[in-house]
Amino acid sequence: MTDLSPHERKESTPLEVTPLSDVDLEAHHGARTIADYAEHLLFHRRIWVLAVFCVASIFLGWHASKIGLEASFQKMIPASHPYIENYLVYEDDLRKMGNVLRIVVENTGGDIYDKDFLLTLKKINDEVFYIPGVDRGNMKSLWTPNVFWREVTVDGIVGGLVVPDDFDGTPGHVDQVRRNVSRSGTVGSLVANDHRSTVILVPLLEKDPQTGESLDYGLLSERLEQLVRDKYAAEGVRIHITGFAKIMGDLIEGVRSMALFFAVTFVLTVGLLYFYSRCWRSTASVIFCCSLAVVWQLGVVRLMGYALDPYSTLVPFLTFAIGVSHAIQNINTMVAERLGGLSSVDASKATFRLLFVPGSVALLCNVVGFSTLLVIDIGVIRELAISACVGVLVIIFTKIFLLPVIMSYTGISERGLQHRALKVGEKNKSLVRRVTGDFLSRLTERRWALGVVLTGIAILATSLYMARDLRIGDLDPGAPELRADSRYNRDVGFLSANYANSADVFVVMVKTRPDTCGTYPVTSAVDRFQAVMGEVEGVVGIQSLVTEMKGLNAALQGGNLKWYGLSRDEYISSGTLKMTRQDFYKYDCSMLSILLFLEDHKADTLTRVVAAAEAFAAANNTEHAEFLLAAGNAGIEAVTNIVVKRAERLMLFLVYGVVALLVWWEFKSWKVTTALILPLLITSILCEAIMAKLGLGVKVATLPVIVLGVGIGVDYGIYLYNRLENYLRMGMSLKDAYGETLKTTGAAIAVTAVTLALGVATWLFSDIKFQADMGLLLAIMFLWNMVGAILIIPAVLSLLLPAAVREGSPVQRAGG
After folding, report:
1. Which residues contact 754 (CB under 8 A, 6 or more apart)?
2. pLDDT digit string (tens) for 557-569?
3. 106, 192, 198, 316 - which has most CB atoms within 10 Å?
4. Is the dihedral of CA 460, 461, 466, 471 positive or negative?
């Protein structure tokens, strides 16, 4: 292919030449001063700039290579909420009801009353006991000394360990275990209803008491698989494991496969960028700077003392995606300047000046969007927000400062220039491009614009109606983050089907004066509470000190069920209390716990339980007994839902408010601000409507996506209007200016949206369901943001801008 002469380039693209002075810099003197200083520093000291970036990259790259993947139970809880503060006061006493693993050991060949099975169960119990992170003193199984039986006989109450100390596997001893289990009251909790499996309850320590290091959930999960599930599967048993730690372990295992999806996204991005630019130089420059942003982000995050977790693994991809979204505009602008006859260095300078204000404002909008997540006081969300803000801030350095310097050396290849000249030239325009351009340009005509705006408002209204069904929290049983047919969710299904006590435990604490937790004023209040909560839909079982005391009262009276109740006599109550296990009350008897076993942890179930418990507490709290919410895995999740629900609307209000202010600051026009914000509003509500229809609740995993929709969308709008305004200042009509904008910035937006959507669409094949769901939502939002920017913004401008601007009268600020 022969090179085009400068004269031929100008003749084929008369409208591609952009002014070297940008209206943003003319309107913002402070920004112009900064841009002048930065331009001088960058392009007169290019070698030094590259050297500084090289040193910084080596330093941050080394730290990035050391970053780990971890999870934390403490970071998943809203620590400042009053209910969680109640839990933290009694955390040591409630540890066995919080972060707990349930290891179900099933005999595939019969019931549990078998010599080989019971001896294998002991081996598994001992294996688990020595796994780092296990709270050994609170472990519970048929083989632990804290599980015993009681029986009323003519000689009084007798009891002992369920599995006797001298158990040797003889038929007599096996029969004795059978009898002991039936007398222990553990059927439905530790032993399955059909007696074919039994549970090992394993409370976990968040920090190792010897080393002080945080629990490594990924390593814990691997040890459970290798030392328990895989090791004993050959001995005639089947292992089922549930609990927060196992969810995190499975998520960490699944997240490691994200490297493959990132690689696919990387390859797709390279291919589509080259297809768009036909220039390996600019493609390589953009990919290098965007990849460098990811390295910097990971390095800075590690220096801040943070690590990646299963929910924040989305952030490096977002950093890469946002970088690509912005960097395509650099290619676009530099090609235009080169076609205007400038050298590579001068074109790079012009690109820097033209994109300095819109690029900075767009990136600041991204920072604002992610920083609003900080209003949610949940550790994992706050760390995600900080990590995402860091990612966007480093893009300012790699995209705005570094990329123009690199491209001043690499430039644009002749093939790339020829491709753009042919693409925008009138003589060489394809039929599809001509029809598309003519059709989209007509959106600036008021009759077409009115139809587009009304359609957008109709979509907004329909989405609002559909979003009414959006819920806060989980909408499915088990772990919705994982596939319904995942091994973990199958294990949860097995536990629910075979045990009366579910894995979803909601704990209510009853605060009393010391040494009074067993007195009648307290126990009678607890008894009434249990009666009320037992009628709440979703509560399938209740355990507490009161339940055990009532049974002991009957036992002490020869097993007569007429005595199954509470005694008003303080001496009787005190005697009964001494015979109970200390599982349900604090050592000084100043607090007792009530365990509500729930059918599931769906949002509606938790809402009903919280409402009923709060209502009872409000009406019945006295000086003797104060009912405090909430602990247990279900209790903590209920509080998390409350915090997310309260913060969600505030978060969206803040992000829209600050983004609108930034857009207004840049363009000094409420009309332009309205045009740019309306598509974003539709995007947010549409996202919520889609989530409602897909059965996705608003929670830790989905919140960042809602914020991202605002950030990426405002990028498109700012770049689009920035280029459009430059053409309007040249005296073009709105229709002509928009037509020229479509050739450059509009095409870049379309390529960006398609590239990013295809990249995240690969997540649909992930084993982790929430990653697949996020991939679908992000793909829809990337594409819809592109549609909103290209269709709605010009239509709104056509209805709001003055007639003189629409018809082509040059003004200082087209927005007015």
Report:
1. 272, 783, 786
2. 766 777 778 878 7
3. 198
4. positive
Q: Which amino acid is at 610?
A: V
Rounded distance between C-alpha atoms, residue 720 and residue 55, angstroms: 35
Q: Measure the CA–CA gap between 609 and 757, rounded to whole angstroms.
A: 40
**Which residues are CB-neighbours of 252 under 8 A, at least 6 positions away?**
69, 70, 71, 217, 218, 221, 310
Type and span of the H or E element at 201: strand 197-203
Contact of 582 with 592, CB cutoff 8 Å: no
- SS in 3 state form for 96-159? HHCCEEEEEEEECCCCCCCHHHHHHHHHHHHHHHCCCCECHHHCECCCCCCCEEEEEECCEEEE
Run of H or E residues at 506: strand 504-511
Q: Can you tell me the distance from the alpha carbon of 131 to that of 142, in angstroms, rounded to the nearest whole number?
A: 18
CB-based contact 442:794 (threshold 8 Å):
no
Q: Which residues contact 546 (CB under 8 A, 6 or more apart)?
A: 523, 526, 527, 530, 566, 592
At 597 the three-state DSSP class reads: strand
Mean of the pLDDT values across residues 643-648? 83
Query: Across residues 375-403, what is the average pLDDT?
Result: 88
How far is residue 499's CA from residue 487's CA, in Å, rounded to a whole number?
18
Whole-angstrom CA distances from 276 to 303, 421, 752 are 37, 13, 10
- CATH 1.20.1640.10 domain extents, the chain: 1-74+258-425, 441-470+668-816
* Residue at 428: amino acid letter: N
Q: Say how many CA atoms lie within 13 Å of 293 toward its Cβ.
A: 35
Q: What confidence tens digit (pLDDT) does each residue in 652-677 have?
A: 888 888 888 888 888 888 888 999 98
Integer Cα distance of 755 and 493 in angstroms: 40
Torsion of CA 440, 446, 451, 457, to 10 degrees: 100
In the 8-state DSSP scheme, what is residue 228?
I
d(CA 308, CA 391): 13
Secondary structure of residue 637 in the 3-state scheme: helix
Token pair for 751: 């390529």
Q: Which CATH topology does 1-74+258-425 take? A: Multidrug efflux transporter AcrB transmembrane fold (1.20.1640)
Token couple for 138: 């609170």
297's tokens: 């982000």
Quick one: which of 312, 454, 442 has its CA closest to 373? 312
Q: What is the DSSP letter of 2?
A: P
Q: Residue 529's closest CA among 629, 455, 419, 391?
A: 629
Q: Please name the fold of domain 441-470+668-816.
A: Multidrug efflux transporter AcrB transmembrane fold (1.20.1640)
Greatest Cα pair distance, the chain, in angstroms, is 113
Please give the Cα distance from 194 to 35 (Å, whole number). 75
Confirm if 719 and 745 have CB atoms less than 8 A apart. Answer: yes
Angle (nearest 5°) at CA 753 between 747 and 755: 100
- Cα–Cα distances in angstroms (integers) from residue 348 to residues 45, 351, 731, 798, in the given order: 14, 5, 26, 33
Q: What does the alpha-carbon distance between residue 100 and residue 73 come to, in Å, rounded to a whole number?
A: 11
Q: Could you tell me the CA-to-CA distances from 87 to 90, 91, 245, 329, 598 in Å, in that order?
A: 5, 6, 19, 51, 19
Integer Cα distance of 689 and 685 in angstroms: 6
Determine the 3-state secondary structure of 59 from DSSP: helix
Q: Mean pLDDT lowest for which of 408-417, 445-454, 548-557?
A: 548-557
CA nearest 16: which of 496, 285, 341, 287?
341
Q: Which of 256, 265, 311, 309 is nearest to 287 (CA)?
A: 265
Structure tokens at 213: 């290091």
Residue with tokens 């700012």: 718
**Which residues neighbour 721 within 8 Å (Cβ) at sequence distance 6 or greater?**
667, 672, 675, 676, 793, 797
pLDDT band at 14 (very low <50, low <70, confident <90, very high): very low
Helix or strand (DSSP H, E) at 540? strand 539-544
* Closest alpha carbon to 293 in 267, 275, 320: 320
